[in-house]
Write a structure and sequence with these properties.
The chain is α/β, with parallel strands linked by helices. The protein is 33% helix and 15% strand. It has one domain: Ureohydrolase domain (Arginase, Chain A). It has an eight-stranded parallel β-sheet, with helices on both faces. Strand 4, helix 4 and strand 5 form a beta-alpha-beta unit. It is globular and about 50 Å long. It binds manganese (II) ion.
C-alpha cells in the first residue's frame, strides 16, 4: 500500500543497516468508537512527508542524513489484536537491539502497546493525548483504544499523561489511587512552567506516545475522537524538544490520524512532528553544536 518511504528518501539514506531511525507503519483499526479512518493514517503521513523540507532550520541540520528506513507496512489481514501487537513488538525489539530509534505510525492507539512491550528496564510512558485512556476495559475489550494507557501502566508501572481534557470517573479514581501524574490541557493553556513540570515527572528513559487528538481540533481536525481545548503545534514541538534535550527517548509513536480528503495539512502536521523529533534528538546529541542552547 505504501508506495514511498518516510521522507521519500533515496536508497543511500534509507537502507535498514545504515539508518538510525526505523519507521513502522501499522494501519490497524478495529475498536474505533466515534469517527473512523485511522487505518489510512500511516499511508497519509508517509505521502505528506515527501513534501517537507528535509533541512531543519531550527536545528540547522539535515536529520535524514542519519538514515530513515521505513519497514514494509504490516500485513494485518485476518490477524487478531494480539498477533498484531506481537508483530510490532518483534520489529521494535530488533530495532532497539541494533541501536536504532523506532517510530510507529498508527493506526489506532492500541498499536503503542506492541512497541511498549519491546522495552526493557525502568522507563516512563509519556502519553500526549486528549483522553486518559485509562479504562479497565471498554466495549468488552481490554485492548480498546480507550484502555491503552491502562495496559501501558500494567506493563511498566509508570505512565504520565499530558494534554488531557476527557476522562470518566473510573479513570479519575484510578489515576488518583495510583498517583499518576496528569498535566491537563487547561494547565498547559495557562502556560507557566508546564514543560518543566512534565520533564520533572519523567524517568531518564522515556517512551513517547502521541495521539494526534492531543492537538486542538483547529490544528488537527483529522482524528476519530476530537476534543476542543487542546494543544497547539508549537506546544507539542516545544515539549518534544525539551524531552530530547534532557531525557533518553526509547521510542515514539504517533497514532489516531484519520485523514480527511482535501485537508492535507493534518497529515503534513503529523509528518512534521515526527521529523522535528528526529531533528531534536540529533541536535541535542551533538554536544559540539555551537547552537546547542537555541531550539
Ligand atoms: Mn485520544
Amino acid at each position: 500500500m505504501v508506495s514511498h518511504n518516510f521522507c521519500w528518501l533515496d536508497k543511500c539514506f534509507s537502507t535498514y543497516d545504515k539508518s538510525e531511525t526505523i519507521i513502522i507503519p501499522v494501519p490497524f483499526e478495529t475498536t474505533s468508537t466515534y469517527g473512523t479512518g485511522s487505518i489510512k493514517g500511516p499511508h497519509a503521513i508517509i505521502e505528506a512527508s515527501g513534501n517537507m523540507e528535509l533541512y531543519d532550520e531550527q536545528c540547522a541540520i539535515n536529520p535524514c542524513e542519519k538514515g530513515i528506513h521505513t519497514v514494509d507496512t504490516l500485513n494485518l489481514s485476518a490477524k487478531g489484536t494480539e498477533k498484531v501487537l506481537a508483530d510490532i513488538e518483534k520489529i521494535v525489539k530488533k530495532a532497539i537491539t541494533s541501536g536504532k530509534f523506532p517510530v510507529v505510525l498508527g493506526g489506532e492507539h492500541t498499536v503503542s502497546l506492541g512497541a511498549i512491550r519491546a522495552l526493557k528496564g525502568s522507563f516512563t510512558v509519556l502519553s500526549i493525548d486528549a483522553h486518559a485512556d485509562m479504562r479497565t476495559e471498554y466495549n468488552n475489550s481490554k485492548y480498546n483504544h480507550a484502555c491503552v494507557m491502562r495496559r501501558a501502566f500494567d506493563i511498566c508501572g509508570h505512565v504520565v499523561l499530558a494534554g488531557v481534557r476527557s476522562m470518566c470517573e473510573e479513570e479519575k479514581n484510578f489515576i488518583d489511587n495510583n498517583n499518576i501524574p496528569v498535566f491537563y490541557a487547561k494547565d498547559i493553556a495557562d502556560k507557566g512552567e508546564w514543560i518543566k513540570a512534565i520533564i520533572d515527572s519523567l524517568k531518564d528513559n522515556v517512551y513517547i506516545s502521541l495521539d494526534v487528538d492531543a492537538l486542538d481540533p483547529s490544528f488537527m481536525p483529522a482524528t476519530g475522537t476530537p476534543e476542543p481545548g487542546g494543544l497547539s503545534y508549537s506546544d507539542v514541538v516545544s515539549l518534544l524538544s525539551e524531552i530530547a534535550k534532557s531525557k533518553n527517548i526509547l521510542g515514539f509513536d504517533i497514532v489516531e490520524l484519520a485523514p480527511i480528503k482535501h485537508l492535507h495539512f493534518a497529515e503534513y502536521t503529523a509528518a512534521k512532528i515526527v521529523y522535528k523529533l528526529l531533528a531534536f534528538r540529533e541536535f541535542h546529541r551533538n554536544k559540539n553544536n555551537p547552537r546547542l542552547n537555541q531550539p
